[in-house]
Amino acid sequence: MRLEARPILANKIHTPHPLYRPSNDLVPCRHALCASLHLSDNYDCEVPHQCDYEVQYADHYSSLGVLLHDVYTLNFTNGVQLKVRMALGCGYDQIFPDPSHHPLDGMLGLGRGKTSLTSQLNSQGLVRNVIGHCLSAQGGGYIFFGDVYDSFRLTWTPMSSRDYKHYSVAGAAELLFGGKKSGVGNLHAVFDTGSSYTYFNSYAYQVLISWLKKESGGKPLKEAHDDQTLPLCWRGRRPFRSIYEVRKYFKPIVLSFTSNGRSKAQFEMLPEAYLIVSNMGNVCLGILNGSEVGMGDLNLIGDISMLNKVMVFDNDKQLIGWAPADCDQVPKSRDVSI
């Protein structure tokens, strides 16, 4: 978890709410939590009494800060309220692609690393190492830690056996366009709520672009080269007001995951899960070329493609699950969770 902190800011930005007032309980540089933030155990400790971190994201956002402990009040679903001591990233230097647009106070660490919220709560015996979220296309939604959702209602696929230290990665998947094979396979995908958009590797992206341009032919759509919102946009006969006005012109995109050559788990992206309407009233593709931002061959499923789905990351069982859901309604649970 990372929040905009109150100390002297090297790159000061305005947040929706007052800045977080940090405690003085710094995490030492050689602490196990600090070590988990680095690629190897052989890292520099210029300031032994504090843990410095730097995080960079696919959308070119970055955060520089220190790790510290603080006490938080958590409300459990069984009615119990506990004060829990956890580590927090206190950011004092943030860089945004668009410095004028800063709609958040901070970020939650929802990955698989030791510093993530679920890992810390699990290490204290409070919840299972399971995290889930449901993002509403209307805005809002909910997030939960522990067993909340009925596992029988979800489609599951194993996490990748590759060593991704901090990320929830599913693989390998085959790409389907409109229910037909695209010829693109062996895709490993990171599910990341820290990214607004979805990213494909260069080859998958180019195949997708070719398919979309072919599909848009003969339809009342024309490429809008003057719209710089995203790399590929189309305009209609009149400005679009909602993505639902154009969904009839586009087909679903599916990631089909295999497990030991057996049944396939299909992650379906309907048109509203990969398209947006720009301020100019055009429809734009919310899937970008990850190779252009240094992601190499990795693929990333961002917020846009997880809307109106409950997503569950079971780090104990090494499984990723999903199902269509009404993200405006928080489910009731018989299990102890947050």
From TrEMBL:
GO terms for molecular function: aspartic-type endopeptidase activity. Signal peptide: none annotated. PROSITE patterns: PEPTIDASE_A1. It holds the Pfam family TAXi_N. Residues 1-323 form the Peptidase A1 domain. InterPro entries: Aspartic_peptidase_A1, PEPTIDASE_A1, Peptidase_aspartic_dom_sf, TAXi_C, TAXi_N. GO terms for biological process: proteolysis. Belongs to the peptidase A1 family. This is Peptidase A1 domain-containing protein. It comes from Glycine max (Soybean).
